[in-house]
Amino acid sequence: MARKSQPVKGFGVVSKKLSLSNRAYRGIHAIKVKNIVGSVGRVQDLLSGFRLKNPDVRYYRLRKIMEKGDVVPPIIVYKVGNEYYVLDGNHRVAIAKELGIEFIDAEVIEFFPSERKESRTLRKKRIEFENLTGLKGIDLTEHRHYDTFFNYINDYAHQMELFLKRKVDIKEAALNWFLSVYTPAVQCIVEKGLEDVYQGKTLGDIFCFILDYKWYKSQKEGYDIGFDNAMQGFIEEILGKEEPEEKKTLIEKFEGLLEEVLPWIKKE
Questions:
Q1: How far apart are CA 80 and CA 15, in angstroms?
Q2: pLDDT digit string (tens) for 205-220?
Q3: What distance lies between CA 138 and its chain's CA centroid?
Q4: Quick check: 3 and 49 in contact, CB under 8 A?
């Protein structure tokens, strides 16, 4: 028994259902004709199986060309997942399906679902953080972490001002903080294998966990325990204690860099 032809899908319906708003141009290449399932704004002109309701002179002219195997211009399609929707070229697709042609050249524009509200909030926070600090490339999975970073950098800027006895721009402080605190800490996070413990989290996320740990321990002890002690304590609680001879504070490990860019931080 022959398989029943599928009705032609409308891109508008699919776009609304999936909230398609992001797009990417994929260039011109051959696509499978069987994966062409719908049309953009012309569903009313098509029957199931992508047959034209009213074949016209143009249809028969194109059919003769394609029957001979001559080249026809690429169609234009919207791609959603593994399916294609014809923006321009319904006649060519209808003929290709009738003739059993397997591939057809197409100019492809791929559509993606809109980002979730949480993702949009995260992106907004990231852009805001980057504009305020000048720091780019710090990936976080929770938008609150960008607030944590910014507040920490603000405190860091205050320390710089006390030491240098002058006003310090937030971007100047952010760069110093990135080189002197964040970069060494991230290297240590990688070396200790904390990424394996917190799978699905970024290096920035793990750094924020250490800041949270620092705040908790400082509240418990009644004084600021300092980032270096917080880092060491966090690692010990997560991974267990290391051998004494291997222990080095972050400042000892990176003292050359710190002496150059962060003279106001003393060893704890």
A1: 9
A2: 999 989 888 888 888 8
A3: 12
A4: no
How does pLDDT run across 138-155, given as a tens digit for each residue?
A: 889 888 899 999 999 999
Q: Where are the domains of the chain?
A: 9-113, 117-261
Domain 9-113 has CATH 3.90.1530: yes
Q: Which residues, 6 or more positions from 132, have their beta carbon under 8 angstroms from its beta carbon? A: 150, 170
The contacts of residue 9 (CB under 8 Å, 6+ apart) are 37, 38, 39, 43, 83, 85
Q: Which of 48, 73, 43 is nearest to 58 (CA)?
A: 73
Residue 69: CA count within 13 A, CB half-sphere: 0
Please give the model's pTM, rounded to 2 decimal places.
0.48
Nearest to 211 by CA among 126, 144, 123, 122: 144
Question: Three-class SS of residue 172?
Answer: helix
